[in-house]
Amino acid sequence: MLANTGLHQTGREGVAFAFRRRPVVEARPAGEAGCSTNAGMATVGLVLLFAALGATVEANPRSDAAASPKVLQKVVGTWGWVEAPNTCQANPHTISVTPDGQGLILRYAHPTEMVGGESSIEARYEIRGSTNKSIRLALVAPMETRKRATGELVVWDLILDGRNKYRWRRTDWGQRLYTREIVRCPGK
């Protein structure tokens, strides 16, 4: 099995078809089965699409550890990846806030592959900051092992795309790479 480097090349054309005939490059945080590819294959089409739609992503979440209660309310619920294996039907995950408000808990219905190939039903994140549309998180359980080029452990941004969708982005990827969409499960 290949290591989960966070990047996944699907071979699909996705939204990039309107701009460029290149495969969609996706990322996978904890809870997604691993595969790897060339990290340099960013999909320019997504950036152009977001720009064309007038979408903006706030790049620098507040640096305080507490997240905005509004953004936390938006992310709490039951979610699933748009593609297997962790869809709403097959293995949804719930997002909840820790009692002290300093972390998020992702709990899957069934065990799934986490960082380093470990199988678990739960991932815990420490909140590092937030904006109106994103939460900056550090994976603490299972322990994050992936590192940035600087040698520091990777940090993730959970980016809300409306009330019923979110994506992940590693902070060292900048604005061009995102995961596949994660959608709110119907009736949840």
List the keywords.
about 190 residues, globular, mainly beta, about 10% helix, Lipocalin
Question: What would you say about this model in short?
Answer:
By secondary structure, this protein is mainly β. The protein is built from two helices and ten strands, in the order ββααββββββββ. The termini are far apart.
How is this structure best described in words?
- This protein is mostly beta strands and 188 residues long.
- It has a single domain, classed as Lipocalin.
- The chain has helices at 44-52, 69-75, and strands at 7-9, 25-27, 77-81, 93-97, 103-113, 119-130, 134-141, 156-160, 165-170, 182-184.
- It has an eight-stranded antiparallel beta barrel with strand order 3-4-5-6-7-8-9-10. It has a two-stranded antiparallel sheet with strand order 1-2.
- The N and C termini lie far apart (34 Å).
Give the topology, please.
Blueprint: E1 7-9, E2 25-27, H1 44-52, H2 69-75, E3 77-81, E4 93-97, E5 103-113, E6 119-130, E7 134-141, E8 156-160, E9 165-170, E10 182-184
Antiparallel strand pairs: 1-2, 3-4, 3-10, 4-5, 5-6, 6-7, 7-8, 8-9, 9-10
Query: What can be said about the biggest beta sheet?
Result: 8 strands, antiparallel, barrel
Query: Mind telling me the C-alpha Rg?
Result: 16 Å
Class in CATH? Mainly Beta
Q: In CATH, what is the homologous superfamily?
A: Pab87 octamerisation domain
Query: Can you tell me the overall shape?
Result: globular
Instruction: Strand order, main sheet: write it out.
Output: 3-4-5-6-7-8-9-10
The CATH topology is what? Answer: Lipocalin
- On the 0-100 scale, what is the average pLDDT? 75
Query: Structural class from helices and strands?
Result: mainly beta
Instruction: Please tell me the total number of domains.
Output: 1
The unreliable regions are 1-27, 32-60
Give the name of the CATH architecture: Beta Barrel
Distance between the termini: 34 Å
Give the proportion of residues in helices: under 10%
Q: What is the H/E string?
A: EEHHEEEEEEEE
